Amino acid sequence: xxxxxxxxxxxxxxxxxxxxxxxxxxxxxxxxxxxxxxxxxxxxxxxxxxxxxxxxxxxxxxxxxxxxxxxxxxxxxxxxxxxxxxxxxxxxxxxxxxxxxxxxxxxxxxxxxxxxxxxxxxxxxxxxxxxxxxxxxxxxxxxxxxxxxxxxxxxxxxxxxxxxxxxxxxxxxxxxxxxxxxxxxxxxxxxxxxxxxxxxxxxxxxxxxxxx
Length: 212
Hints:
The protein is an alpha/beta fold. It has a single domain (5-211), classed as TIM Barrel (Alpha-Beta Barrel), CATH 3.20.20.
């Protein structure tokens, strides 16, 4: 088992970005969905992206953006990876890959088929499985996801209700390629808690040390 990658999503300021990078995050997410409490304007996100240390990736998160909307934002803030967190048609998914994270909401009745569907799309680099439509901190049945993910070649990123207290258990159950956290490292919606970021990253590292 390789070590579990860590993504801290919903970064909106330099101090939080620094806290994530220093704690060991592999990626930070910028939310480009207006109306989200974690929304950041692309021009502000670009200023932060330029301050990222080497080997820490930037991820732009979109929800049902059109290709034109994506292009306009991407021009202002090009990111290393793109995350689609809506109900984007396959045509849009293919247009925006590769280096694409496609999020799906966990549903016990459909998760196996959803994983197989996106596993078959070459442009999808990572499949993110969340317990909600995103950023709501809702966990789900990790054991059922682990079963559904058998035979899936595309790396799985686990999200939804994760925090320092349970991410180790989640990693042991799913053995995901990566974990993604937002609300689990916040003081309140949209406001990151830097101690929680550090604790979350350490919990992931500790979980890996037990499994490697």
